[in-house]
Amino acid sequence: MKGIVFTEFLEMVEEKFGLEMVDDIIEKSDLASEGSYTAVGVYDFLEMQQLIVHLSEETGIPVQKLIYEYGRYFFDVLAQGHANIFARYASPIELLASVQDHIHVEVQKLYPGAELPTFEISKKDEKLLEMTYYSKNSLYMFAMALMEKTFEFFKKTPVIDYNLVEADGSQVKFVISEQ
Ligand code: HEM
Hints:
By secondary structure, the protein is α+β, with helices and mostly antiparallel strands. It has 2 domains: 59 residues; 111 residues, H-NOX domain (Alpha-Beta Complex). It is 53% helix and 17% strand. The protein is built from 8 helices and 4 strands. Strands 1-2-4-3 form a 4-stranded antiparallel β-sheet. A hairpin with a 6-residue loop joins strand 3 and strand 4. Helix 4 crosses helix 8. It is globular and about 50 Å long. The structure holds protoporphyrin IX containing FE. Protoporphyrin IX containing FE (HEM) binds next to helix 1, helix 7 and helix 8. GO terms for molecular function: heme binding. It holds the Pfam family HNOB. It comes from Christiangramia flava JLT2011. This is Guanylate cyclase-related protein.
């Protein structure tokens, strides 16, 4: 997992819960990096898993809710850092349908070592997109948050349903429609 995902995560934890919380969750985790991350580095996803589980234990907020909130936060980082990419698309459905074949292909070049999910589109029209998320990291609530924020970016309202095809969240089908 790319370092920027860690640095921004700890930034969010500091903003929302304070610096002491950052120290606490690093302290509780068994981290090869010792909790010292750079945006361009690459670190084991197990480190992120531990940080999130410990944040959940400390705050009482469920893990999936924290992953979702982090997705919403990370979208703003992406939208600021990559405004040029967002500017290419005329609608949220067009943008989301391009993540697999265009956006993340470019991301792989910009962020060497990035671990990206796979999205497989099964249905698409102007107002509807059905696509299945695949990733061993099971960050489907992160995907959900990025999808919602993509609609907000275009000042549109979505209805997003999802269904865990695999119980561990490594394969999740999304049905996304624009209202
Ligand atoms: C300009 C737009 C985008 C950029 C620059 C971008 C970049 C990235 C980066 C750097 C990561 C971290 C990779 C790693 O952990 O090593 C990531 C992960 C991810 N991105 Fe994107 N992304 C963009 C748009 C989107 C959108 C719109 C979606 C919504 C479907 C999306 C879905 C995801 C998911 C779900 C992950 C987590 C990885 C996983 O599930 O295994 N991305 N992206």
